[in-house]
């Protein structure tokens, strides 16, 4: 077995060593902010205010997490709403975007260039917030989760990305399906859809992140009209409550350094990003492949 090993010259070994060192250092740099955030979330607010953040917790405490989870029903409900919207939105959005991208790259699809231009045009010019708000209100969606769900379901940029990747699928596969008597939908489901895995993982990750991190649309259309707010909007409200409380007791006989503000922000960051961070390693391989193909295809 050792006889078949390729012997590397000294320059190649040195290059590999330098590459490993650079990758290791870069990995440490990328992990550093996460360690800092977790450490700060477990620190005492008064010590953080005096000494700043550190890699190790200063005055270990769980007070920030107690503040976040003081209403467990609300936080669990927010998690449930966000998870349901993320899963359903990602699955439905992926299917629609994949069909749209595949159809727009087919040469036998009429008006494909005009429709593609219309989709691309919306990435440059947008109607703005006021017309969108009026449109949502006119449809009777204000105060409903659908007002947020539908707006994040598709993105022009993701359609363009999917279209560019679908171009890499040989057209002969479509023709072979037609020869066997399959319809367009059957061809897409049985032949094309399985070949779009890298693009599906890439687009799916972007869709999932969009739903998971959403809070602005919720502040416009949901507010207090629903029992359980999406997670990011709920955590945003917790931070605002802490800041308001800190402002209201300023000047009173209460030490504002005892009220979690900076540490609370770090705790909410951990609560909000933790689940989605564990998703990335499972799609990393396809994510990089999908981004590369989408970038080089014209």
Please give a handful of descriptors for the protein shown.
298 residues; mainly alpha; MetI-like fold; 2 domains; disordered C terminus
How do you describe this structure in short?
With 298 residues, the protein is mainly alpha-helical.
Number of strands: 0
CATH level-4 homologous superfamily of the largest domain: MetI-like
**Low-pLDDT regions:** 294-298
Please state the CA-atom Rg, rounded to the nearest Å: 25 Å
Largest sheet: none
Shape, per Cα inertia axes: flat
State the CATH topology of the largest domain.
Answer: MetI-like fold
Q: Tally the structural domains.
A: 2
What is the architecture of the largest domain at the second tier of CATH? Orthogonal Bundle
Mean pLDDT: 82
Counting H and I runs of at least 4 residues, what is the number of helices?
14
Task: Report the sheet-strand fraction.
Answer: under 5%
Quaternary organization: single chain
Category from helices, strands and their pairing? mainly alpha
**Helix/strand order, N-terminal first:** HHHHHHHHHHHHHH
Q: How much helical structure, as a percent, in the residues?
A: over 70%
Alpha-carbon distance between the two ends: 45 Å
CATH class of the largest domain: Mainly Alpha
């Amino acid at each position: 077995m050792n006889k078949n090993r390729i012997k590397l010259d000294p320059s190649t070994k040195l290059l590999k060593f330098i590459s490993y060192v650079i990758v290791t250092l870069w990995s440490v740099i990328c992990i550093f902010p996460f360690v800092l955030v977790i450490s700060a979330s477990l620190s005492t607010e008064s010590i953080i205010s005096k000494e700043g953040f550190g890699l190790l917790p200063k005055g270990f405490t769980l007070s920030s997490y107690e503040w976040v989870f003081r209403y467990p029903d609300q936080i669990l409900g927010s998690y449930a709403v966000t998870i349901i919207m993320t899963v359903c939105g990602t699955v439905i959005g992926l299917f629609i975007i994949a069909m749209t991208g595949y159809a727009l790259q087919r040469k036998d699809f009429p008006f494909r260039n005009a429709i593609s231009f219309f989709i691309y045009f919306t990435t440059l010019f947008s109607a703005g917030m006021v017309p969108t708000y009026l449109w949502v209100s006119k449809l009777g969606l204000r105060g409903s989760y659908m007002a947020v769900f539908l707006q994040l379901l598709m993105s022009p940029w993701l359609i363009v990305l999917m279209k560019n990747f679908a171009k890499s699928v040989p057209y002969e596969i479509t023709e072979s399906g037609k020869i066997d008597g399959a319809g367009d939908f059957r061809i897409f489901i049985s032949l094309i859809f399985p070949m779009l895995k890298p693009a599906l993982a890439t687009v799916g990750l972007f869709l999932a992140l969009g739903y998971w991190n959403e809070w602005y649309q919720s502040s416009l259309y949901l507010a207090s009209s629903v029992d359980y707010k999406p997670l990011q909007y709920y955590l945003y409200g917790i931070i605002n409550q802490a800041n308001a409380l800190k402002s209201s007791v300023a000047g009173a006989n209460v030490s504002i350094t005892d009220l979690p503000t900076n540490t609370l922000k770090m705790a909410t960051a951990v609560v909000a990003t933790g689940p989605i961070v564990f998703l990335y390693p499972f799609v990393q391989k396809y994510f990089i492949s999908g981004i590369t193909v989408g970038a080089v295809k014209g």
